Amino acid sequence: MQDMFIEMERLLRNGLSPSELRIEDFSEQHAGHSGNPTRKKRGTHIRIFITSSEFQGKSLLEQHRSVYQIMDPFLKEWGVHALELKTSLP
Q: pTM of the entire structure?
């Protein structure tokens, strides 16, 4: 599981060159809910705080799309069910 978070950070840093990046796992709060029927306590619900100059001139929706594009493999292949995003400019 730790490998997943290392890979998330690597891809986000390479793709958006953030000045600040924090990735939090809040899956345990959702263990047993419909989005987490296997009761996994890690890796299903992720919160990302990211500050990047790459967001300059982009709407909030466009900023989020930029992050979702990078996170797509985690949603499709790694079992991430939910992303909570907080994007900002430096």
A: 0.82
